[in-house]
Design goal:
By secondary structure, this protein is an all-alpha fold. The protein is built from 8 helices and no strands. The longest helix has 28 residues, at 72-99. The radius of gyration is 17 Å and the shape is elongated. 35% of the residues are buried. Keywords: Membrane, Transmembrane, Transmembrane helix.
């Protein structure tokens, strides 16, 4: 099994700077679901509709059709896309914790927030205008930024789970 554990060493008995790939992915998926729920609630309260953020994500693949015809396929593709991106960034965040030996809870939370805000800035102003212009113009920047912050906090908090920190594997297994 693959591991993000550097050199097979534990840096701190209480808070290991090690993660299994599976747990890193799960942490990112959980963070992405918290972010999605936030975006869907903001969208509902603002009168746009509960599923609009998911439809906007699906517009990456379907273009404007995703906004005109809400189907199960569009919702499923939007949710899966968001979870896959979250899984990828969960791996990135866990990798950063290992590479920089970030062990303490407060440091992990700050790194989680900082990385998530960095992801938001790049996404909002560089990536989305190119790959999903509808989402770039229809998501409220403050809500999108806060959603990314929630992703960072929740993913980093998941990585503080003592059960998770015991789930370390070496590539020999």
């Amino acid at each position: 099994m693959l591991s993000l554990e550097p050199g097979g060493r534990n840096f701190n008995d209480k808070m290991q700077a090690t993660f299994s790939v599976e747990w890193a992915i799960l942490g990112g998926v959980i963070g992405s679901m918290v972010m999605a729920i936030w975006a869907m609630m903001v969208s509902l309260i603002s009168g746009k509709g509960f599923w609009v953020p998911v439809q906007l994500i699906a517009a990456t693949w379907f273009g404007p059709q995703a906004m005109m015809h809400m189907t199960v396929r569009i919702i499923v593709v939007g949710l899966i896309t968001h979870m896959m991106v979250g899984a990828m960034f969960g791996l990135v965040l866990a990798g950063l914790f290992v590479a920089f030996r970030i062990r303490s809870g407060p440091s992990r939370l700050l790194w989680g927030i900082g990385c998530a805000i960095g992801i938001w800035i790049v996404n909002q102003y560089a990536i989305l205008p190119t790959i999903d212009p509808m989402m770039a113009t229809h998501m409220s920047p403050w809500a999108f930024a806060l959603g990314h912050r929630m992703f960072g906090v929740n993913t980093a908090t998941f990585f503080l789970n003592p059960i998770m920190s015991q789930q370390t594997f070496s590539s020999a297994h």
